[in-house]
Amino acid sequence: DAMVIQNPRYQVTQFGKPVTLSCSQTLNHNVMYWYQQKSSQAPKLLFHYYDKDFNNEADTPDNFQSRRPNTSFCFLDIRSPGLGDAAMYLCATSRGEGRWGDEQFFGPGTRLTVL
Amino acid sequence: AQSVTQPDIHITVSEGASLELRCNYSYGATPYLFWYVQSPGQGLQLLLKYFSGDTLVQGIKGFEAEFKRSQSSFNLRKPSVHWSDAAEYFCAVAPNSGGYQKVTFGIGTKLQVIP
User: B8 vs chain A: nearest CA distance in angstroms?
Assistant: First the structure.
């Protein structure tokens, strides 16, 4: 089945220790997104890629970076995690046919704990 | 900028009872509207979406939603709730315009189903 896969599902890191979260997709979609979701809050868009074109949200901290080496994979790098970065991180994809009305397909998420 | 309000943070219904989850949006024109469901520990799954045309939209799992322009609402309904419907439900809006505009999610409504 075509899907969005996130690894690992659970990640524990130490305060200040860099961490990388992984997302892969078999849908061959043009757009890949990273969201941060804290408990009882709406998913918050961090950034997205349309193909190789990176688009950062204005309020995304510099501590968060992303890489998309090819169509299938996208990575979220947190350079120096703080306690406030503990959250669920959701990866999503969409076809990207020229407008945001595209349905987004979500992965199961990675729950990040910062000690 | 668009916004979404889900006034009910938590709702409890009995199995077999009807359900209505409220969603109000703010946008200058008719937007794209979505309802997503998130089961515990899972990513978001699209239930249904409204782009244009018939204001009553049918979705998966027996859900439907009605777009009411005069009330700026897009409420989600189900005539008979099943225990497996217990989850968190997110309403979302995206501008109905060309180019890329981000999807804005509401804060979510957590549904509890009791026997």
Answer: 12
pLDDT surpassing 70 at residue B100: no
pLDDT digits (tens, 9 = 90+) for A44-70: 999 999 899 999 999 999 999 999 999
**Alpha carbons within 13 A on the beta-carbon side of A3:** 8
DSSP-assigned states of every residue in B28-66: SS--EEEEEEE-TTS-EEEEEEE-SS-SEEE-GGG-EEE
Question: Which among B31, B36, B32 is positioned nearest to B21, based on CA atoms?
Answer: B36
Q: Which helix (H) or strand (E) holds A25?
A: strand A19-25
Distance from CA of B42 to the nearest CA of A (A): 4
| Separation of alpha carbons A22 and B37, rounded Å | 23
Contact B102 A106 (CB under 8 A): no
Integer-rounded Cα radius of gyration of chain A? 13
User: Best interface-test mutation with B: which of A99, A102, A105 has the largest number of B CBs within 10 A?
Assistant: A99
Enter the tokens of residue A66.
């992303």
A1 touches chain B (CB under 8 A): no
* Cβ-based burial of A65 (10 A; exposed 0-12, middle 13-18, buried ≥19): middle
Q: What is the pLDDT of residue A102?
A: 74
B103, B4 contact by CB (below 8 A): no
Q: Quick one: which H or E segment has residue B11? A: strand B10-14
